[in-house]
Amino acid sequence: MKCPKCANMETKVIDSRVIEDGKCIRRRRSCEYCEHRFTTYEKVAVTDLFVIKRNGIKQIYDRDKLKKALVIAYGKKNFSLEKIDDIIWKLENKRSGMWKEITSKQIGQDVLDILSKEDDIAYVRFASVFMEFETKKDFKWILE
């Protein structure tokens, strides 16, 4: 692992801990050249998953894009990034090994299914973007 401070490749692991209920390993590292300490995280990656957008274009699945959408959905409410990571982890586990392609519509619906149980406001905010609300009647419909 390359040191982020001096770019030396000789680093050593000082401490390793399993976090996020076994979904991730946190490692504290030290550079053997400049002694800078830094943290790395090891997670199972979702690879070879393509998202088919509404316009038919295929893109490689982007976890960060989904994370940004959830952060926006939660807005200024009190939430933790750990909670959002947990939602994404549930979705990725559901898809893991099942498909090589998934539609953005299916991802959005899966997110709505989880948010409907987690947080009403985040659900409505995510739905308003995902379902492309244009009028206040659309909001009334989802609230009913």
Give structural notes.
- This protein is an alpha+beta fold and 144 residues long.
- The protein has two domains: 33 residues; 94 residues.
- 42% of the residues lie in helices and 23% in strands.
- The protein has five helices and six strands.
- The strands form two sheets. It has a three-stranded antiparallel β-sheet, with no helix packed on it.
- A hairpin with a 5-residue loop joins β2 and β3.
- α1 packs across α2.
- It is elongated and about 60 Å long.
- The model has no long low-confidence stretch (mean pLDDT 87).
Keywords:
144 residues, alpha+beta, 3-stranded antiparallel β-sheet, 3-stranded mixed β-sheet, 5 helices
Short description:
This protein has 144 residues and is of the alpha+beta class.
Strand order, largest beta sheet: 1-2-3
Largest sheet, strands/sense/barrel: 3 strands, antiparallel
Low-confidence stretches: none
Judged by helices, strands and strand pairing, the structural class is alpha+beta
Helix content: 40-55%
Overall number of strands: 6
Principal-axis shape: elongated
Q: What integer value in Å does the Rg equal?
A: 19 Å
How many discrete domains? 2
Order of helices and strands: EEEEEHHEHHH
Q: State the separation between the terminal residues, measured CA to CA.
A: 52 Å
Total count of helical runs of at least 4 residues:
5
Average pLDDT metric? 87
